[in-house]
Amino acid sequence: MNEQTKARIKELQKEKDVVILAHYYVDGEVQEIADYVGDSYYLAKVATTVEQQNILFCGVSFMGESAKLLNAKKHVYMADDGADCPMAHMAEVEKIEEVRKEYPDVAVVCYVNSTAELKAHSDVCVTSSNALKIVKALPNKDIYFIPDYNLAHFIAEQVPEKHFIFNDGFCHVHKSIHREDVKKAKELHPDALVLAHPECTSDTLALADFIGSTSQIIDYATASDSKKFLICTEMGVFYELMQKNPDKKFFSVGHRQFCPNMKKVSLDKVLEKLEDLKDEVILPEEMCEQAKKPLDEMLRLAQ
Question: pLDDT > 90: what percent of the chain?
Fold first, then answer.
């Protein structure tokens, strides 16, 4: 049945002029049929270059919003309309305004894993792969980094000349990867390198041999001479890791490395959305204008 589903998906794509973008955290069978697979930064860039008039996003809601913000004249759809990211909502507009009053020099740096509303009240967006470069490039000394505390803390340690105001948001998947889990996994696989995402807590990151975004973790493992790796991020990334490195072994460090929202996306839901192309991602015009600015600034500064 899967082969029939895949064939029908490809048929409908051509018929309806649809490009499929998928995040590394969705199931491997969905990544397999996507035209482009990547992390948030890569997919944000790709969304601005595709020729198709319809974009089908296999990921969570903020990704579809970002694609729409960067492509106002194109039609954007989510493979699963209920797939959301809790962290994307973990900051408040009222708090942003309070911080701006207290720190007139502040730059509100918004992790791309956030709602369009939060982006609309920010100065620049970042991803885990470009946050350090962009923060360094900002002239502002005061940085209010939203919504993720752990990524903010990781970046702050590398730019001590900046003053960070932290927000208390978090990714429940990465926060649940505990230091003790990594230690136990390391005991089982003592010759494995530990690769961690900066959304993990600082005590977990302290055990890592490499810290980077999802795509950076994949690149590091692929370039490394090592043959075994402990992966501290969502397990959807294992598909690409094994595709690129069939001779290497990858291990999780616990049973919680699973995002239920990302896993809502399935081949059947991709096909269902392609059949009718209903429930387009729609954002208020004024919000689009304001929220696109920090995304454009991100793309400019990250070049």
Answer: 91
Contact 256, 182 (CB under 8 A): no
pLDDT at 9: 97
- CA-wise closest residue to 294 among 29, 151, 163, 117: 117
pLDDT in tens, 4-42: 999 999 999 999 999 999 999 999 999 999 999 998 878
| Distance from C-alpha of 303 to C-alpha of 134, rounded to nearest angstrom | 10
The residue behind tokens 């969304």 is 47
